[in-house]
Amino acid sequence: MAKIQITQIRSIINRPKSQKATISALGLGKINRTVEKEDTPQLQGMIRKVGHLVKVQEV
Question: Under DSSP, is residue 10 helix (H, G, I), strand (E, B) or coil?
């Protein structure tokens, strides 16, 4: 499977609880923190939910 790199670029201050939980589940939480994950349909759904807070790149 393809790998993707997810970087948090915006703060989660004043965001709904569900978006904060999604960022945490992705392994993020601080600006400029980056994680590398396998590209799955579940992950794509999480990224769609917080797409305005993260930057996604294929590796």
Answer: coil
Residue 38 main-chain phi, psi, to 5 deg: -70, 140
- Gyration radius (Cα) of the chain, Å: 11
| Total-model pTM | 0.93
Three-state SS for 24-45 is HHCCCCCCCCEEEEECCHHHHH
Q: Can you read off the two tokens belonging to residue 28?
A: 């993020």
Residue 52 neighbours by CB under 8 Å, 6+ apart: 10
pLDDT digits (tens, 9 = 90+) for 6-46: 999 999 999 999 999 999 999 999 999 999 999 999 999 99
* Structure tokens that stand for 52 in this block: 């305005």
Residues 29, 43, 3: CA angle, nearest 5 degrees: 95
